[in-house]
Amino acid sequence: MKKNRQAELIKSLTKQELVYHLYFTQIIILTIAGLLSFIFFNSYASYFKLFSWDTGWIIIGIVNGLIIVALDLVLMKLLPKQYYDDGGINEKLFSNMPIWKIAFVAILIAVAEETLFRGIIQTKMGLVIASIVFAVIHIRYWAHWFLILNVVILSFWIGILYEWSGQQLLPVIAMHFTIDFLLGLYISRTASQNNHKEGI
After folding, report:
1. pTM, two decimal places
2. Which of 35, 61, 100, 149 sees the fewest Cβ atoms within 10 Å?
3. Distances from the Cα of 124 to the Cα of 2, 34, 118, 120, 171, angstroms
4. 10 lies in a domain?
5. How many separate domains does the chain show?
6. 149-180 pLDDT tens trace
């Protein structure tokens, strides 16, 4: 029933409304992260230290993102379609979206979510709490147990990388961006192919 309601809600929204909702949500997340940084960090220096550049760890983040994408693509082929059914949100959002816009959306989400969940919550409250909050926030994936499991595992994976890197944000931002960008491209390409077939 909940899944049907979500699907009906998605159908009632235009693609532009979905994009605006996404931007609005990420701006809220960034605002919350900014406000909490004043509360939890004693100085700007200690906060911006989280964004220190380490090429080696950034590459590791990208490689981890590629592994996640590869696993997802394999599972999409092997598992029933409903296991990855989020109510049509991703398909509607990314279909026919230009590459530059997919990249922009992916970097916005990666920076906003990792700054809040890893940079603030995990740094100050720990891996478990950050991972749980991350999973709870992604309410649109609650429609299927596999999607929930997927998000929880991904959250812990990103959180563990954050700890291993010495609590550096750029590697996990790179990982998150890689996942969202490549899967966004895949969804966009698949949707375009399906539309082309329907038009034949």
Report:
1. 0.88
2. 100
3. 34, 14, 9, 6, 19
4. yes
5. 1
6. 899 999 999 999 999 999 999 999 999 999 99
